[in-house]
Amino acid sequence: xxxxxxxxxxxxxxxxxxxxxxxxxxxxxxxxxxxxxxxxxxxxxxxxxxxxxxxxxxxxxxxxxxxxxxxxxxxxxxxxxxxxxxxxxxxxxxxxxxxxxxxxxxxxxxxxxxxxxxxxxxxxxxxxxxxxxxxxxxxxxxxxxxxxxxxxxxxxxxxxxxxxxxxxxxxxxxxxxxxxxxxxxxxxxxxxxxxxxxxxxxxxxxxxxxxxxxxxxxxxxxxxxxxxxxxxxxxxxxxxxxxxxxxxxxxxxxxxxxxxx
Length: 261
Fold this sequence. Notes:
Blueprint: H1 5-26, E1 28-34, E2 37-38, E3 42-44, E4 50-51, H2 53-64, E5 67-73, H3 79-84, E6 90-96, H4 99-102, E7 105-112, E8 116-121, E9 138-142, H5 146-154, E10 159-163, H6 166-174, E11 180-184, H7 185-192, E12 200-204, H8 211-214, E13 218-223, H9 227-243, H10 245-253
Parallel strand pairs: 1-5, 1-6, 9-10, 9-11
Antiparallel strand pairs: 2-3, 3-4, 6-13, 7-13, 8-11, 8-12
Helix pairs in contact: 2-9, 2-10
């Protein structure tokens, strides 16, 4: 059967329209929640720009997924409720994958895993990171974190002082209002390398560091049941690990591999 040129053109145009429509329907638009107060992982500069390892990783993942992504800053204590309520679609904010959090959200595989550490003044008399070694000391830790959970459960003879952000307890440590602080070793080492951190040093690391408290590493959190989004992120994490983009970002911030074993 022969088709007129006019009819053939109309059929071709309709096919193009359907193709474009399908392409637009598949475009992935995501809002990414982050804290913006946890350098060197995520932080807001004085002019309001989000920077840090988490931010660069998020941008690389979005590029790999061909997704259009927008960042939303959120206080840490309310970040999971904000995700669940739909304020954003995923959390990329150095959130440890723990069994407790898995009851509320779903996680991707880890995208990094670094240990906890304790820092204090250079002239500190603390010799051992343990219940006995920190007895009678005042320790600053960010609330709603794995570090806070561990410190509260382990250093029961110490005063555990909770803070909204790590920046606030580091300021109190520098000003002599705390005996020690506990946080991710990468965060503490980054701060110690600045003029503000010249007062202090790493005193040691908790040992052991139980997975039931500290989790399996930092992952990306999404709402319960959003399996397809988890799979997209996992594939993107594996891709940037394989193509060298992850290492490029890692080396921008750290002198060692933060992905962990």
